[in-house]
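Morning - farnesyl diphosphate inputs below, output right after.
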Amino acid sequence: MQIFTPEEKERLPVHVAIIMDGNGRWARSHGKPRLFGHRNGVENVRSVVNTAREVGVPFMTLYAFSQENQNRPMDEKSGLMRLLEEFLKRELKTMQKDGIRLRAIGDLDGLPRFAKKIVEDSIEKTKDNDQWNLTLALNYGSRQEILQAVKACSQNQNQNHENLEWDDFAQYLETKDLPDPDLIIRTSGEFRLSNFLLVQAAYAEIFVSPLHWPDFGRKAFLDALRDFTKRERRYGKTSEQLTSF
Ligand code: FPP
């Protein structure tokens, strides 16, 4: 049975970015420690990534660790880094076989050395893959990214600052190689962007699910995509302007 009609397929997002919230609450509701929630969260990453590939959504960005997450207890932070290492070790073969290119945004210098190394190695090993695109936001903060971009742009003597256009400035952002997200999904019922892709989200549609991330599986993801296909993206125009030729 086909998942999407040809018309719906035409309207699928190119880039989906996800704020994977609620691992801790999910763990608590199962009477388990927080890391149990994160571990199940990683399992769900596999399921959602596979679904995106199956239906033809070519770019996905996952908010795996924010700069603010640095304030969490040490054992949770190191547990998350071990999960990241495990994930990348396990998935490298698949990424190579299926042509998945890994990218990262965020300050990798703020990660433990072993985590930084495996992220950088995986990025390097997959850099020629061109079938699908996974970006992990790691020690990422949008305000920090913007500030860095402003500094780099203002220091570039070759840049004509007087006539600076948005597209010129966007080249200084860490997302310069990525299309802007069309759809941002947040799980766990919170209506916030939490310092994630603030300027890239200018025209993104936002979908908030009440489910905690480990429960936001294939079906919930497909429902979010279907909802997106029904949205009218006006980019400041009126509905009439969009339908008139
Ligand atoms: C939010 O849940 C989730 C995180 C802070 C981390 C997300 C990380 C993963 C799913 C694992 C690592 C990812 C990859 C790609 C290997 P929370 O802890 O804030 O939940 P709570 O708000 O219910 O406490």
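Note: Residues 20-25, 38, 41-42, 45, 62, 64, 69, 80, 83-84, 87, 136 surround farnesyl diphosphate (CB under 6 Å).

O.
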